[in-house]
TrEMBL record:
<protein>
    <submittedName>
        <fullName>Acyl-CoA thioesterase</fullName>
    </submittedName>
</protein>
<dbReference type="Pfam" id="PF13279">
    <property type="entry name" value="4HBT_2"/>
</dbReference>
<comment type="similarity">
    <text>Belongs to the 4-hydroxybenzoyl-CoA thioesterase family.</text>
</comment>
<dbReference type="InterPro" id="IPR029069">
    <property type="entry name" value="HotDog_dom_sf"/>
</dbReference>
<keyword id="KW-0378">Hydrolase</keyword>
<dbReference type="InterPro" id="IPR050563">
    <property type="entry name" value="4-hydroxybenzoyl-CoA_TE"/>
</dbReference>
<dbReference type="GO" id="GO:0047617">
    <property type="term" value="F:fatty acyl-CoA hydrolase activity"/>
</dbReference>
């Protein structure tokens, strides 16, 4: 994953969100499952902007195959966060996405790495990432994804 001190230059896509009261748990901080929801919201917004392809289960589209999250600090209500997302690698049928969550003051809250698979919903099988999507990613990303 990119050095966190360099994230402003590496991550083009930014998705702002407000921390909600209901996101907190009995410990008084945002519950861990909500971080996965935050990353999900960032992934969907990223796909709509970077891929210029609506997310949906028709034809070919991207699906989540694997994800991980590393917690760097607690998050509390009230607060504003930004989810930053980028494609760091493109393979034959999959893409690796890196994401981070930062607070309004720029403090790093969490990191994530996910594997997205380009999927044909008719055949229920992975298919090659389209050349048109690869071209879009070359133009969109500040740092060229590995494999392009």
């Amino acid at each position: 994953m990119a050095e966190m001190t360099d994230y402003a230059a590496v991550f083009v896509h930014r998705f702002p969100m407000a921390v909600r009261w209901g996101d907190m748990d009995a410990y008084g901080h945002v519950n861990n499952v909500n971080f996965l929801r935050y990353f999900e919201s960032g992934r969907v917004a990223y796909a709509q902007e970077a891929y210029d392809h609506p997310v949906g289960a028709n034809g070919e589209n991207v699906i989540l195959a694997d994800t991980q999250c590393s917690f760097k600090r607690q998050l509390h209500y009230p607060g504003d966060i930004t989810i930053l997302s980028r494609t760091s690698r493109v393979g034959r049928t999959s893409m690796t996405m890196e994401q981070i969550i930062v607070q309004g003051d720029g403090a790093l809250v969490a990191t994530s790495r996910s594997v997205m698979v380009w999927f044909d919903f008719r055949s229920q099988r992975p298919v090659p990432v389209p050349d048109s999507l690869k071209s879009r990613l070359r133009r969109y990303e500040a740092a060229l994804p590995e494999g392009l």
